[in-house]
Fold this protein.
Amino acid sequence: MAPQVHLNMNVRGLEMSATVAINELSAELIRQGRTISKLGLGQSPFPVPGTVVDALRANAAQKAYLAVRGLAELRDAIADYHQRRNGVPVSGDDVLVGPGSKELMFVLQIVFYGELVIPTPAWVSYAPQAQIVGRRVAFVACDRRDGWRLTPEKFEALCAGDPQRPRLIVLNYPSNPTGATLAPVELQALAEIARKYGCLVLSDEIYGELHHAGEHVSIARYYPEGTILSSGLSKWCGAGGWRLGTFTFPKSLRWLLDAMATVASETYTTTSAPIQYAAVHAFRGGMRIERYLAFARKILAALGAACRRRLVDAGVDVLEPQGGFYLFPDFSAHAESLRARGVRTSPELARRLLDEAGVALLPGSDFGRPREELTLRIAYVDFDGAKALASLEARPLDTPVDEHFLAVHCHSVLQGVERICAWLRGDLEASQAPRAQELRA
Ligand code: GLU
């Protein structure tokens, strides 16, 4: 008799995470010989800073299982980092280290009792994780007119609807997918509402260090007693594949940290030892890491603005990004002509752009938006960040990152965006000889 195997109800119908799937699809198409601008997966284009790579090399022989909560030295370094950067008075005992903040979020969803609040557009994995653990989700649809940001009014309306319900709200700023961030006064207003209703905040600040002006502020400043601050090496340290994430808890929520550590001890046990030793150097920071970050921000700010300019010139509505490496353009001004070409939904738009323009990106529907809303996420990361950084470092400090620099170092990104614009005009031929190509040194 064939084995009787059935899928757990919670995972039935779930597909591979959109970010991971588009990455694998792009790689496969490239392997088949197609030229693809890889604007799908949001992976840092920059290398891991040299000092951190050296530390990993020096610790390659570390082989012991480390403490479930993380290496004590690393937890202290993370606490110091958050004190320095975010002004939150935490100690190493308040820190939990895990194999990526994505895994820590999943463990939190397992141990927490209550409703998960997700303002959309939101990163692709919060909701599927909730589905896997059978958690109830309340989506709050944000508005383009509010810069895709959660307004205090919307948050208050949700909480007031059932004031006693235990809730966990996830706030991600700078945002994946919009590139927008929350200003201190907005954070203060949201903090007051969270405090009023006893709502726990999961503050996903994985792009904090990539605020383009280096001015990231954490909501933990205004709501220290109810904020779990989530960070990690993946984005600012260029180390997505290293898998190291961190949660920092208020002292009053030590029991929640302990519960997560218990689940961790029964699942992943601990985070890779060599990576933890190396991460100590990343979180301790220093002049070389500061320089690395300053240059990375400068490149991302200029590139985000250049991509946006091209889209705006093509009649696409898109916010000026403030941090991270994403744009979330809205093509609804072109809805009529797109309909005439058989495109009615964001997945159709993304698919056509991949097939006909060779640009891999993700539809807004993967970020919790209605399928009929013609939004897309562009991750402007398809370039060699090591070369771009080296070139900038070799020039005088005030050298601007101009169109010429971008054309030389970020060619594939600009070409991808130009192809989107050309495809939109029904003029794909023009995109075969894009401006970026002509400007190449
Ligand atoms: N956070 C990245 C993205 O949104 C990729 C990593 C992931 O989703 O696990 O593209």
In short: The chain is about 45% helix and 10% strand. The mean pLDDT is 95. The first strand starts at residue 37 and ends at 38. The domain at 18-47+288-440 is CATH 3.90.1150.10 (Aspartate Aminotransferase, domain 1).
